[in-house]
Amino acid sequence: MRGRLPFARLEHWQTRYVIVYAVWAWTVVLAFPLVFDFA
Fold first, then answer.
1. 1: part of which helix (H) or strand (E)?
2. What does the angle CA 15 – CA 32 – CA 13 come to, to the nearest 5 degrees?
3. What is the average pLDDT across 12-39?
4. Phi, psi of 2 (to 5 degrees)
5. What are the two backbone dihedrals, phi and then psi, of residue 29, each rounded to the nearest 5 degrees?
C-alpha cells in the first residue's frame, strides 16, 4: 500500500472501520455473558 494511495485516503478507509470495531466490542461485552451464562 505504501506509495500507491494518498495517506488521507488510507486513513479514511481505516477510520471507517472504527464503528465496526465498536459494534463488535459491544456485542462481545453484552452478548457473551448471556451466551456463556457468566455470573
1. none
2. 10
3. 87
4. -65, 125
5. -65, -40
H or E stretch including 19? helix 18-35
Could you tell me which residue, 2 or 21, shows the higher pLDDT? 21
Distance CA 19, CA 29 (A): 15
Which of the pair, 29 or 2, is modelled with greater confidence? 29
What pTM was estimated for this model as a whole? 0.54
Residue 1 in this model has a pLDDT that exceeds 60: no
Question: CA 20, CA 38: separation in Å to the nearest integer?
Answer: 25
Please give the Cα distance from 10 to 1 (Å, whole number): 9
